[in-house]
Amino acid sequence: MIPLLLLASVVAPGTTFTCTPVAVWDGDGPIWCAEGPRIRLEGIAAREMDETCRPGHPCPRASGRAARDHLVALLGGARGTLRTGHIVVRDSPLTCVSNGSAKGDRTGALCRSQQVGDLSCAMVRDGYALAWARYGGNRLCRSARTSSTKR
Length: 151
Known about the structure:
Layout: E1 16-19, E2 21-24, E3 31-33, E4 38-41, E5 44-45, H1 64-74, E6 78-81, E7 87-89, E8 94-101, E9 106-113, E10 117-118, H2 119-125, E11 130-132, H3 137-140, E12 146-147
Parallel strand pairs: 4-9, 11-12
Antiparallel strand pairs: 1-8, 2-3, 2-7, 3-4, 5-11, 6-7, 8-9, 9-10
InterPro entries: SNase_OB-fold_sf
Protein name: Nuclease
Organism: Sphingomonas metalli
């Protein structure tokens, strides 16, 4: 499965696609999909793995490691670690809708799991990320914690 990750490409905006998660970097992505795309969860911000928040991004209280580990748990739990530091996961396919490029070879997307529902909202609801108004997060998860402020 991992060799398919080399085929990563940005999915056209508005396209619904399947992502079978195989690896995760941090609490808002990228999630590497067996089908090729690398997903940046749309509408949320989580701390980076070095515990910083990028300038201009909402800055949640949860640590980068805690956010990553929670997303991994939502995706079926850790199955190992790649040499790159990504955590290997194995979960049933997600249904995602692309919002286009999230810089580089990442696709910004809203993704739903059969077990969890909307992953972005679950991360916000559970306190590991903040909804990001600039990218529609406040509309996305109305009952979850939100932020339009900078750190």
